[in-house]
């Protein structure tokens, strides 16, 4: 008695396996996040994110060259300003750290896409993503007073030459505010990639050390989404589309593949998924302990994110993955 169906026939050798592979991770789909800091000649490994660096603008341009040579299409920029204040004014300063970085990158490498994260938390002394107001005993993050500031940051980033603006603050109405701000400043052609379904996740832990953006008090649960809510995520995405988002993002990636899949089925716009700092750091830590094979785990996670429906993956592995594709 032989089995009638033998799926293993097509698994016999690497050639057959490659022929029938349904999902491929190509370098054209990966965006590398980078952290830019003041100074010159700075390239300092980030303790919480092994193999990722704090880069001064000159070093950032060096890194941009390497990424472009490897065929990575773009970078997502985060800035650590010289000084923080209560408003977060470094975020829209025309000489602010990210604006300097965008100008330098676009001058040196016009073809490399520069995406700017649009948020206040790296720039505010309190570390929240919006304007704070004391309300009796509690401090609240005020939604509507934050919106004009976000629009102002977007215009500063567009003026510097950003190809794509990515608001990550999770205030209500921010995509509309950013779109209006850009349009009023004649940046009608600058697209918005909205962090539409961004969850209040423990997986941002290493990033907050990297970007020095942890809230001084309280947490982000009043504006980021409850990890338990899938329907609400779809509603957030619909709202952002209605407000004028050109692309949508799900963040984090691996713990939210169900959201990504549902979004893929429901929306026609390009979808991005952000494999966040904690997703990356846990793989590197386990690999260092000898418990996981770093590269195999990297490819498996990237493939899963693509399989679930992401067009674009924002990942700290972009550089490493592209280098491996280069060699293979
Ligand atoms: C800013 C922002 C955060 C991340 C991206 N943009 C941090 C946060 O919301 O606390 C996290 C990215 C990562 O963990 O890799 N709001």
Structural summary, described in words:
It is a single chain. This protein is of the alpha/beta class and 328 residues long. Helices cover 39% and strands 20% of the residues. It has 11 helices and 12 strands. The protein has helices spanning 14-19, 57-70, 97-108, 143-160, 174-184, 205-210, 231-243, 257-266, 277-288, 294-308, 318-327; strands at 30-36, 43-46, 49-55, 74-79, 113-118, 131-135, 138-142, 164-167, 193-198, 247-251, 271-275, 312-315. The strands form 2 sheets. Strands 1, 2, 3, 4, 5, 8, 9, 10, 11 and 12 form a 10-stranded mixed beta sheet that branches. The longest helix is centred in the middle third of the chain and has 18 residues, at 143-160. The termini are far apart. The model has no long low-confidence stretch (mean pLDDT 96).
What would a concise description of this structure say?
The protein has one domain (25-327): TIM Barrel (Alpha-Beta Barrel).
């Amino acid at each position: 008695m032989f089995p009638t169906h033998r799926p293993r026939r097509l698994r016999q050798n690497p050639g057959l396996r490659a022929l029938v592979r349904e999902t491929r991770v190509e370098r054209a789909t990966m965006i590398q996040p980078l952290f830019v800091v003041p100074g010159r000649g700075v390239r300092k490994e980030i303790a919480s994110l092994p193999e990722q660096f704090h880069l001064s603008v000159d070093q950032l341009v060096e890194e941009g060259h390497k990424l472009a040579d490897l065929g990575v299409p773009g970078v997502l920029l985060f800035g650590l300003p010289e000084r923080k204040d209560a408003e977060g004014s470094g975020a829209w300063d025309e000489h602010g750290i990210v604006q300097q970085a965008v100008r330098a990158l676009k001058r040196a490498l016009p073809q490399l896409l520069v995406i700017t994260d649009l948020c206040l938390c790296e720039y505010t002394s309190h570390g929240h993503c919006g304007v704070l107001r004391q309300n009796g005993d509690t401090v609240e993050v005020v939604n509507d007073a934050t919106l004009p500031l976000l629009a102002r940051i977007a215009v500063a980033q567009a003026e510097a030459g950003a190809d794509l603006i990515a608001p990550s603050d999770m205030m209500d109405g921010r995509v509309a505010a950013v779109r209006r701000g850009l349009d009023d400043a004649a940046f009608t052609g600058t697209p918005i990639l909205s962090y539409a379904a961004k969850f209040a996740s423990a997986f941002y832990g290493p990033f907050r050390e990297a970007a020095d953006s942890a809230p001084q008090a309280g947490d982000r649960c009043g504006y980021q989404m409850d990890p338990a809510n899938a329907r609400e995520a779809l509603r957030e995405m619909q709202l952002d589309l209605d407000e004028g988002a050109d692309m949508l993002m799900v963040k984090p990636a691996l713990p939210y593949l169900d959201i990504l899949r549902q979004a893929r089925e429901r929306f026609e716009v390009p979808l991005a998924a952000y494999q966040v700092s904690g997703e990356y750091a846990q793989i590197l830590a386990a690999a260092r302990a000898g418990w996981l094979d770093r590269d195999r785990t990297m490819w498996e996670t990237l493939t899963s994110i693509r399989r679930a429906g992401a067009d674009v993956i924002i990942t700290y592995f972009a550089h490493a993955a592209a280098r491996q594709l280069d060699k293979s």
